[in-house]
Write a structure and sequence with these properties.
Elements: E1 2-4, E2 18-20, E3 24-31, H1 45-62, E4 70-77, H2 80-85, H3 87-97, E5 104-109, E6 120-128
Parallel strand pairs: 4-5
Antiparallel strand pairs: 1-2, 3-6, 4-6
Helix pairs in contact: 1-3
């Protein structure tokens, strides 16, 4: 896997502009901050993010994949201001769960998520060489 950084572009913070990869594809559906019993971990955005990322890691493990195999992620949040306010805590939980691997990422603010109380939903695509 190789990060794509066009010459002269400012270096992105916490993500890659693009990823080049070859191998077996794994598609992880949008994961929210709920535990195995389908209950949310609470109302805190960073806590929900930690759980959503942990859920992604669990799905990847089912395919024999690791967080370092993630090529892209799409994050859906219901409140951009809350995301920006909690960015340091979110970055901390990201590094604790995913590590220092930064795939191509997109962040989208949405009006709402399907599950009541969910503040973030994250989907991922991984490539296992």
């Amino acid at each position: 896997m190789r990060a794509l950084q066009p010459p002269g572009w400012a270096k992105p913070s916490g993500y890659a502009n693009g990823i080049e990869a070859q191998g077996r594809l794994i598609f992880v559906a949008g994961q929210i901050g709920w535990k195995a019993d389908a209950t949310l971990v609470g109302a805190d955005l960073a806590a929900q993010t930690r759980q959503a990322l942990a859920n992604i890691v669990a799905v990847l493990a089912e395919a024999g994949a690791k967080p370092s195999h993630i090529a892209r992620m799409t994050w859906y949040v219901v409140d951009k201001a809350e995301y920006n306010r909690d960015i340091k805590a979110i970055g901390k939980v990201y590094r604790e769960v995913i590590g220092s691997h930064y795939p191509a990422m997109t962040l989208v603010q949405v009006a709402d998520l399907l599950e009541a109380g969910a503040k973030v939903e994250i989907e991922a695509t991984a490539v296992v060489p």
